[in-house]
Amino acid sequence: MAQDPRVAFAHNRWVHRFAMLTAGATFVLLIAGGLVTSTGSGLAVPDWPTTFGYNMFLYPWSKMAGGILVEHGHRLIGAGVGLLTLILALWLWVVERRASLRWLGVAAVVLVIVQGILGGLRVVWLDQSLAIVHAALAQAFFALVAGVAFLTSGDGGETSRKIEGSDAGRVRTLALLTTGVIYLQMILGAVLRHTGTGIGVHLACGAVVTIQVCWLAAVIFNRYAQEPRLVQPVTLLSALLFLQLVVGAGAFLGKFTARGVGLSFHHLVALTTTHVVVGALMLAVSLVLTLRVYRVVTARVPPIAGQRIPSHSAAGSEA
């Protein structure tokens, strides 16, 4: 028996809202994770999966202060995001017709579990490389959940209105490359934050990201200026890039030059954490834009050789 379209629409609408909630909670988790690294609170709680011997969820709130509050709060938010991700995946598996989207939900669950284990092992093993992988996967997970939220929206459906373009392949490739270099920049940023090395490579990749975003924006504004579904996200991406450059310059001056001596600890924490968070937003927006380009921009089919295309004037004369 075919599903009532009105019921299907209601299911999709609520799944989309829940996916947005999960993405929002993940964004809060990224902020918490950024604060853990920026404040040096990663080892404030020395055991895992317990917290000073307590069950993680039963640790007394009265003892949560300073670095313990930052690190233990990060763990609690992570557990909440894990629960939301599991519910989202189960919901997608029950109501979503697209197998690819159902499996994306499964992938999100696997990734959030791996993230939790990596975060715990980083504390137990005192391994800095695990912290880098943990940070890089956190960005990927946020982008994945943001992608699921888009794909469950009206624009992410299979019936989205298409846009024909002779340069569809070029725009798709450019959007994909932009997302790729932004993620590479996030990885390099994680290496820099956790080891203090690689500033030159990070700055060089930042220049590449700037070129890619500006190039993509120029192509979209030039070819698809009347299409808000593309103009709006690329405008947001460009604005985030500008903000990221400003915040990144402040973070660089604060951490790697003598000019940073005048900055307070709290100012430096705010700058470095904001830099991480804005980078995550750039990655998510770029991924959503890429998915939208692949979803709605299609190649214009050229006319078959020898086929006569009637003109309006000819049609009028025959009438």
Protein described:
- This protein is mainly alpha-helical.
- It has two domains: 1-159, no CATH class; 163-301, Four Helix Bundle (Hemerythrin (Met), subunit A) (Up-down Bundle), CATH 1.20.120.
- 74% of the residues lie in helices and 2% in strands.
- The protein has helices at 5-38, 66-95, 99-125, 128-151, 168-195, 199-223, 228-256, 265-296, 312-318; strands spanning 163-165, 297-299.
- A two-stranded parallel ribbon has the order 1-2.
- The longest helix is centred in the N-terminal third of the chain and has 34 residues, at 5-38.
Write the layout of secondary structure elements.
Elements lengths: L4 H34 L27 H30 L3 H27 L2 H24 L11 E3 L2 H28 L3 H25 L4 H29 L8 H32 E3 L12 H7 L1
Parallel strand pairs: 1-2
Helix pairs in contact: 1-2, 1-4, 1-8, 2-3, 3-4, 4-5, 4-8, 5-6, 5-8, 6-7, 7-8
Key traits:
319 residues, mainly alpha, Four Helix Bundle (Hemerythrin (Met), subunit A), 2 domains, two-stranded parallel ribbon, 74% helix, 2% strand, globular, disordered N terminus, disordered C terminus
How is this structure best summarized?
74% of the residues lie in helices and 2% in strands.
Helix content: over 70%
- Could you give the order of the helices and strands? HHHHEHHHHEH
Number of domains: 2
Radius of gyration: 23 Å
How far apart are the first and last residues' alpha carbons, in Å? 49 Å
Strand content: under 5%
The description of the largest β-sheet is:
2 strands, parallel
> Order of strands in the sheet with the most strands?
1-2
Structural class comes to mainly alpha
Number of alpha- plus pi-helical segments: 9
- What is the typical, i.e. mean, pLDDT? 88
- Which regions contain 5 or more consecutive residues with pLDDT less than 50? 1-7, 309-319
Overall strand count: 2
Shape: globular
